[in-house]
Design a protein that fits this description.
With 241 residues, this protein is mainly α. 78% of the residues lie in helices and 0% in strands. α2 runs antiparallel to α3.
């Protein structure tokens, strides 16, 4: 088989996996918003992470083989967990109590704007003209959505919610930059179950400290929402990414 054919197949596979990530993470925002009717925000993140942990360990055991993380990968494992899986998810879930799901998704995913800038500053990656144009268009779009001239600056809740989403995006971007600059010994997916396990522990500690013991309304809808958030929304999305 020629190199051109192999490259074409790899590109097709990458596009399909990207579509899975977009659909999974895009649909998570209304699901996360809906879960708030049945459980506190941080507990909702912790509970869905328990489910994704079990799912990722099952996928590893059945398909890819479970491997313990190597010591050299510990820094990137911890940064991914703390910056993205804990801080990003807590901030975005708290903001969802105030900010509509559609606006929340747009602001939180501005991480794709801050990551190239961070990579240029920290890793020395070059910003091509095409990237600069893309960043400029993205920032203009963000300004159009946020529109400081029509924003209600007297609403402290709205200001706080939007600020939490932007901070969440910056923290996720910092995690992306660290990932790009890290010399991997294990593959990202080999670390995924261990990242989810550590995130479950840290999220539980945070939920107990901030919200106290969980108060959850258990019914068919809340269970379905949690299963969707934990399996396709988190575990499958991480696998595809």
């Amino acid at each position: 088989m020629s190199e051109a054919v192999l490259k074409s197949r790899r590109n097709t596979r990458a596009l399909l996996l990207l579509a899975v990530v977009v659909l999974a993470w895009g649909s998570m925002w209304p699901v996360n918003k809906a879960m708030l009717a049945y459980m506190p925000p941080i507990w909702s993140v912790a509970l869905r992470t328990y489910i994704s942990t079990v799912t990722l360990f099952a996928i590893s055991l059945l398909f890819t083989g479970l491997k313990a993380p190597r010591r050299a990968d510990a820094p990137v494992l911890v940064s991914m967990v703390v910056l993205h899986m804990v801080c990003f998810t807590i901030l975005s879930q708290l903001a969802l109590q105030i900010v509509p799901a559609g606006r929340s998704a747009v602001l939180a995913y501005t991480s794709v704007l801050w990551a190239p800038i961070g990579a240029a500053l920290v890793l020395g990656e070059s910003l091509s003209l095409r990237r600069v144009l893309g960043l400029g268009i993205g920032i203009l779009g963000l300004g159009a959505i946020f529109n400081p001239f029509t924003f209600d600056w007297s609403d402290r809740g709205a200001i706080g919610g939007n600020a939490m989403l932007l901070l969440a995006a910056i923290l996720w971007a910092a995690s992306i930059v660290h990932n790009r600059g890290h010399v991997w010994r294990s593959t990202p997916f080999q670390l995924a179950p261990w990242q989810a396990l550590l995130a479950s522990v840290l999220l539980t500690v945070a939920a107990l400290a901030i919200e106290g013991p969980p108060v959850v309304t258990w019914n068919a809808e809340s269970v379905t929402l949690l299963l969707f958030a934990g399996i396709p929304g988190t575990a499958i999305a991480y696998w595809a990414a």
